[in-house]
Amino acid sequence: MSLFKKIFSSDKKETLDKGLEKSKTSFFSKLSKAVAGKSKVDDEVLDNLEEVLVTSDVGVDTTLKVIERIEDRVSRDKYLGTDELNKILREEIANLLSETNKGVATEFSIPTDKKPYVMMVVGVNGVGKTTTIGKLAYQFKKQGKKVVLGAADTFRAAAIDQLQVWADRVGVPIVKQDMGSDPASVAYDTLKSAISKDADIVIIDTAGRLHNKVNLMNELSKVKRVMQKLVGDAPHDVLLVLDGSTGQNAFEQAKQFTKATEVTSLAVTKLDGTAKGGVVIGISDQFQIPVKYIGVGEGIEDLQVFNKYEFVDSFFK
């Protein structure tokens, strides 16, 4: 099928295949039980498939959409063999993801008409937020872009230290203050520094506390307001980082953060260590926010631009 033509380099695709291995193995072992002894897709197979998708962390609402699409195919084609089910699943899930993730990105890129391009990164502690920022900085620097990092998660000394480690590793400047400083002040200083350095991209780390959503909302709003004094339409991207290995908990975090601030893109991390990779499909569909990046390994190159066709191809291979 032309949708699934290979558009990644072979080494990236190999990393993606390997990163989704646990999810794929778990899914197919459930799927083979669901269709055991059946040659035709009937109501019983569809009921079993529904259970397979839900237990693979695709999420109930997205699962129902997928089942509905397959039911339409069954009634239209009159006879569908269970041997065709994998192909149909690939097609229907890719079509579903196409409705949210429009276009096909194959590399790390930012709009050329925004300078500096300002990314604000949000997410709870422990999801791989700082690591994602470091890996993004690496990718953008590799393209010859000037990157500046801002350590505006001032509530944990460890967060500032960790971002400093990444800044040193990648070789990009970082703007930071002492623990307990005003996050908005750090963001302001970061933008000021970026403008003076003629930087292409600014990536701001923010605190990851959800226990009091009102405080979080107020804090993020203040960070935005202060940045807009220097760059009128900042931030250009609010990237929410989610830990894919937490499965349904990632849905809950997405729900909370999209209420607390205007999230414009998603990164789903830690997919290589989990069988819950189906969560990417559900999150991408449910929140109608594009998944921009996925983490499929610990290496610096293992943050990938999310490509729906490559992902589905690897998941259902």
Automatic annotation (TrEMBL):
User: Which Enzyme Commission number(s) are on file for it?
Assistant: 3.6.5.4
Q: What is its main location?
A: membrane
Gene3D superfamilies cross-referenced by the UniProt entry: P-loop containing nucleotide triphosphate hydrolases (3.40.50.300), Signal recognition particle SRP54, nucleotide-binding domain (1.20.120.140)
Query: Where GTP is bound, by residue?
Result: 123-130, 205-209, 269-272
Record membrane topology:
Peripheral membrane protein
The entry's family comment says: Belongs to the GTP-binding SRP family. FtsY subfamily.
Q: What does this protein do?
A: Involved in targeting and insertion of nascent membrane proteins into the cytoplasmic membrane. Acts as a receptor for the complex formed by the signal recognition particle (SRP) and the ribosome-nascent chain (RNC).
The protein here is known as Signal recognition particle receptor FtsY
Organism, per UniProt?
Zhouia amylolytica AD3
Q: Which gene encodes it?
A: ftsY
